[in-house]
Amino acid sequence: MNQKALFIIFGGTGDLAYRKLYPALFNLYEKGYLKEDFAVIGTARRPWSNDHYHEVVMSAIEDAGRDSGRTNDDLPRKFASHFYYQSHNVDDVDHYVALRKLADELDEKYDLQGNRIFYLAMAPRFFGTIAGHLKDQALLTKGNGFNRLIIEKPFGRDYPSAKELNDSISGSFKEEQIFRIDHYLGKEPIQSIAGLRFGNALFNSLWNKEHIDNIQITLSESLGVEERAGYYETAGAMRDMVQNHIMQIVSLLTMERPDVFDSEHLRDKKIEALENIQMYTKEEAKKYFIRGQYGADEANTQLGYRDEEGTDNQSTVETFVAGKLITHNPSLDGVPVYIRTGKRLTKKSTQINIVFKNDDQNIFAKDASEKLKTNVLTMHIEPDQGFTLEFNTKTGNQGYNLSPVHLRYRKTATEKAQIPDAYEGLIRDALMGNKTNFAHWHEVSQAWKIMDVVREAWDEEEPAFPNYASGSMGPEAAMQLLADDGRKWVFNPRS
Ligand code: NAD
């Protein structure tokens, strides 16, 4: 199914547009979701010609590795011919008048029926200005066509700033017209959480406080801050990873089953799940949330965060967060969700571990202290994609001994290559008006409220950084967090 639309990309000369948006739009064109009735206006400050813009779009496709093995060599050029460049300063009202004129012309030329998607690939401080001018200068379609706004993180630095940002766009766009990208929601293994939970009687019937002991979410990176120090110094791991990506995953794992699998029902259940996460006092936040910053590795071959280029040598920015959240959603009431993310950890891996409760009765025990090994379901998100189910089975011929075995399913390289890039899927969803994989304002705001308490608690004390060595799995306190509850992290790679 294809859809007619005019895309207006603010920040058309930027990194996001070049690396992600142009290749994603091309893939949609190649697959037929966009046919000849679409157009793109790219706007930014640079004075580019349309011809130059076409060259940039074609080279973006080439750099994304999407120009090889194609039978139709003309396709990128044909695709790029739908692109129009308009030099534009977001503060200048006259430019919106010119933009409206061009938009109306293209609407007519390509018969776009007034369908408009405004993609703000720019810093959020511009969102309010752009949204206001789009409305005032009548760029929003009035007829039967749709107006959709796509925006990118960061959605604020805390709840008050997120609300201010949201208020600044909500005068022009209604919530149902706003598509907030959290690119984790565009990843197929994250989308499969709902399928695994609600598409299998086996897991659906076990997904409750009677059977789940705890849930663990790890987003670990082996790289350091690399060239993102400037941004990272103003953000840190909590704002970069926890408030958005991890909290979205938490909501998908703890939500109740929706009656119907559609974006409205899913959204309601996710909001409810986030509202049912226990709100901590500052004292509890200090106890249940651990922050860390990497130092050099033991052999001193890797720099500590404070010595990286572009960071403050006394920086108190966290590069690691671990925490315990407690859900009070009815089915999982009281079940702890341990979360963890960090840079320069032992191994790159995003994974979710569902740790099931042990059977109290071990009929195979040789003595009373012998416990069964815990059953664990692991969802591998990246770089591996798939599942591992750990369970006990009889081994050996002598006596009746049980040992854990791993039932593994992994997507092959070929299967992985066939999965569309997150941006391709998300832009296709926005084009089709499907909001399932976008973050609703209530989700974003509730996640901030939960995290703001932690931030406020942390801000009361100066952290003793650095507190973990590059190549380790973070500060000792992150291990202790689980040990205090008589548990341990399932994912515990050795360097
Ligand atoms: P960038 O600096 O590469 O691009 C910014 C764009 O905004 C450029 O096209 C620039 O010309 C334009 N611009 C800046 N000021 C302007 C003005 N006054 N008037 C008109 N145009 C102006 O940034 P980016 O990396 O493309 O990121 C854009 C946004 O997307 C940021 O908010 C970023 O946090 C977010 N984001 C980026 C990525 C990524 O992969 N690059 C990923 C997630 C989120």
Question: TL;DR of this structure?
Answer:
This protein has 495 residues and is of the alpha/beta class. 37% of the residues lie in helices and 20% in strands. It folds into 2 domains: 5-152, NAD(P)-binding Rossmann-like Domain (Rossmann fold), CATH 3.40.50; 185-421 and 435-483, 2-Layer Sandwich (Dihydrodipicolinate Reductase, domain 2), CATH 3.30.360.10.
Write up this protein:
- The protein is α/β, with parallel strands linked by helices.
- The chain folds into two domains: 5-152, NAD(P)-binding Rossmann-like Domain (Rossmann fold, 3-Layer(aba) Sandwich); 185-421 and 435-483, Dihydrodipicolinate Reductase, domain 2 (2-Layer Sandwich).
- Helix content is 37%, strand content 20%.
- It is built from 16 helices and 16 strands.
- It has helices at residues 15-30, 50-63, 75-80, 93-110, 127-136, 159-170, 188-198, 201-206, 229-235, 237-254, 263-275, 282-288, 413-418, 422-432, 441-459, 476-483; strands at residues 5-10, 38-44, 83-87, 116-120, 147-152, 178-181, 212-220, 289-292, 294-295, 320-326, 336-342, 349-356, 376-382, 386-395, 401-410, 468-469.
- The strands form three sheets. It has an eight-stranded mixed sheet, sandwiched between helices. Strands 3-2-1-4-5-6 form a six-stranded parallel sheet, with helices on both faces.
- Helix 1 (15-30) links the parallel strand 1 (5-10) and strand 2 (38-44).
- Helix 10 (237-254) crosses helix 15 and helix 12 (282-288) packs across helix 15.
- The two termini are 48 Å apart.
- Nicotinamide-adenine-dinucleotide is lined by residues 11-16, 19-20, 44-45, 88-90, 121-124, 152-153.
- Nicotinamide-adenine-dinucleotide (NAD) is lined by residues 11-16, 19-20, 44-45, 88-90, 121-124, 152-153.
